[in-house]
Specification:
The protein is mainly alpha-helical and 476 residues long. It contains 19 helices and 6 strands. Strands 1-2-3 form a 3-stranded antiparallel beta sheet, with helices on one face. It starts with a helix and ends in a 29-residue tail after the last helix.
Length: 476
């Protein structure tokens, strides 16, 4: 016993003759340790070196005793205290999910012993009671709890990662038509239990605010000068400025004239809660929907109506996302959906495909294409170019026409030092015609009588020596 205690594991694996194994003992900075046995020395040294590197870099994962001793119920309590301060929707989103997992998994179970099988059993049982979307939300809360526990050093892994979500389709293609909107406003005015229901619906459609921000609207948030509603905190935890159009501006003016002493825009007018903000308009809203004959519609669909109407009237998706307060364009695409009727009008743009005369058809410039008038005239023009023109000289000829751009066959080959003429085969037909027009115009002006620009008098040059053939060399 004393011999085993006196072994030094700080320098690497140690051979144990009693078990015929290589033993490795790792001591972590938090006073915890890990012991392992290997058959081969190479594997033992590899493991020992890897753990020592992690300790030196500060990224070691210690098998601390806290995750083993901490129970699942205690972990839920710790995360609940954290979520109350950092999760805005704790009461409506996180707290109900934590109650589900507290009832489904024994609270005395150690946190490290929670397996994906336990979680999957609760998931399947929960799927028989509620919708698939609710089950996925419960799994999301549990996944966040384990991720938080890993960050705090209370767990080593997240078992929810190996649990398959149901992935229920939560997108709704429901929004009001203009006729439904008019009928809903007419019936909302007749609901006596909710005197401010019509104004709330109008503001929801013309501002796109969520129900919580709309019902909690304060008069201090309204910027009358700039016609903007400034919400200090939204669902994402950030402030938002929503501009007011004419309809929303008129509604707020009516509410301002009929306001009482409350600072809330939508406040109780009587009873024990007089002056306090309204919490919900569900009963009055459902009554108005029933009287208007509108089915399968929720309050949040008013926000869908705001986004859909903007997109259908030509607003960009990015602008709609800023008005809704979204962080990514993907979230905006979920709300800015379009009706099948609108898409059918858009797809009607393809009607007539295959016909000869259709708008937007690309013109193909070929040998039989019709060129503009000035280019056709340029093809008939005669350019007087010498067959063997020297450098810097152009002689006139009366019977040498330029090649017609519309003419089929090989391009003309002219021996000349002019780069534009020499590279005519490298340019399109239309461009070659334009170049010939420019060249011909320049030469006509150069040889026209009376139009040649006067040159300054040059000093008389000495006569050039005669060439061996007897002719004079041309001047440079």
């Amino acid at each position: 016993m004393d011999e085993r205690r006196s072994r030094d594991f700080s320098k690497g694996p140690v051979w144990d003759e009693r078990t015929n194994r290589w033993r490795v003992e790792i001591r972590y900075p938090d006073a915890s340790r890990l012991r392992k046995r290997f058959r081969r020395e190479r594997e033992a040294r590899r493991f020992w070196s890897a753990e020592q590197t992690k300790i030196a870099d500060g990224v070691w994962k210690s098998p601390a005793l806290r995750p083993v001793q901490l129970t699942f119920g205690a972990a839920l309590d710790l995360y609940a205290a954290h979520a109350k301060l950092h999760v805005p929707s704790y009461a409506s989103y996180t707290e109900p999910a934590l109650k589900v997992w507290r009832a489904g998994i024994c609270s005395t179970t150690r946190l490290g012993d929670v397996t994906p099988g336990m979680i999957d059993t609760v998931k399947l049982q929960r799927a028989t009671e509620v919708k698939k979307a609710s089950v996925d939300r419960n799994l999301q809360v549990l996944r966040r709890m384990f991720n938080w526990a890993i960050e705090q050093g209370l767990a080593n892994e997240n078992p929810v990662r190996r649990v398959k979500f149901l992935r229920a389709e939560t997108r709704r293609l429901r929004y009001l038509t203009e006729d439904e909107y008019r009928r809903l406003l007419a019936k909302a005015s007749e609901v006596s239990r909710s005197p401010l229901l019509r104004e709330a619906i109008e503001l929801a459609v013309h501002t796109g605010l969520r129900r919580g921000n709309l019902l909690g609207l304060q008069w201090d948030w309204v910027d009358w000068r700039n016609r903007v509603v400034r919400v200090p905190r939204t669902k994402s935890g950030k402030p938002q400025a929503v501009p007011l159009n004419r309809a929303a501006w008129n509604v707020l003016q009516r509410l301002w004239k009929a306001r009482g002493e409350s600072s809330c825009v939508f406040a109780h007018t009587a009873g024990r809660s007089a002056g306090q903000a309204l919490l919900d308009l569900k009963k009055g809203f459902h009554t108005a929907l029933e009287h208007a004959g509108i089915e399968d519609f929720r309050w949040h669909d008013l926000r869908h109506t705001f986004a859909s109407w903007l997109v259908m009237r030509g607003a960009s998706v990015r602008a709609v996302g800023e008005l809704l307060g979204h962080q990514t364009i993907h979230m905006t695409m979920r709300y800015a959906h379009l009706s099948p009727g609108y898409l059918s009008r858009e797809i009607g743009l393809l009607d007539g495909v295959g016909k000869s005369n259709r708008p937007g058809r690309s013109v193909r410039m070929g040998r039989k294409s019709r060129l503009p008038r000035e280019l056709r005239r340029a093809g008939e023009a005669k350019v007087q170019i010498s067959k063997r023109a020297r450098k810097g000289q152009r002689a006139l000829s009366e019977n040498l026409p330029i090649e017609n751009p519309n003419k089929t066959g090989a391009p003309c080959r002219t021996r000349t030092c002019d780069l534009l003429v020499r590279s005519q085969t490298l340019y399109p037909t239309e461009l070659r015609a334009r170049e010939h027009v420019i060249i011909s115009s320049a030469m006509v002006l150069a040889h026209a009588p009376g139009r040649r620009p006067a040159r300054p008098a040059a000093p008389p040059a000495a006569p050039a020596p005669a060439s061996p053939s007897g002719s004079r060399a041309s001047s440079a």
